[in-house]
Specification:
By secondary structure, the chain is mainly α. It has one domain: Up-down Bundle (Four Helix Bundle (Hemerythrin (Met), subunit A)). Strands 1-2 form a two-stranded parallel ribbon. The longest helix has 27 residues. The protein is elongated, with a radius of gyration of 17 Å. The N and C termini lie far apart (about 45 Å). About 10% of the residues have low confidence.
């Protein structure tokens, strides 16, 4: 990757990180009680789902690292196979969906669709050199995570 392109990618990622750090945290505005909807899963599926969510977070970090290195095809591959629509069987989505409220299912499906759309945007960024679409698409993935974690909690 050319130094100017690498600088542009790094600058964009740094600006996004600074913006997210400048946004007040949930803890600063949290009420004394947790108002999220409690969703009850059987113990084994609860553990499985929590492990999946930790893997989703690790995957997002790997995607960001690949983007920062200008490895757009790698970011696309990671996203599609670990978060995208082609990952549903890997995560046992069918098994856990039956315990989710419909709106929670919609958010989860939205996250998987957004991850597949990011894969396309990352591939396009590799061809065009313009990372803005990929970063915007990645933001749509994490927006689904934020929406779900803001509305629901597993019990």
């Amino acid at each position: 990757m050319r130094p100017a392109k690498r600088f542009a990618v790094a600058s964009t990622l740094a600006a996004l990180a600074a913006t997210s750090c400048a946004t007040p945290s949930v803890h600063e505005h949290a009420a004394a009680t947790d108002t999220r909807v409690a969703v009850r899963f059987p113990d084994e599926l609860r553990r499985h789902t929590l492990a999946n969510m930790r893997d989703h977070l690790a995957t997002l970090q790997q995607i960001e690292q690949a983007l920062g290195r200008g490895e757009f095809d790698r970011a696309a591959e990671i996203s599609e196979h670990r978060l995208g629509l082609s990952s549903l069987e890997l995560h046992g989505a069918h098994d856990v969906a039956q315990y989710m409220p419909p709106a929670m299912q919609d958010i989860g499906t939205g996250m998987h669709k957004a991850a597949s759309r990011f894969s396309i945007a990352a591939t396009n960024a590799g061809a065009s050199g313009d990372v803005r679409g990929a970063i915007e698409a990645l933001s749509a993935v994490t927006a689904q995570c934020v929406a779900c974690h803001s509305a629901y909690r597993l019990e």
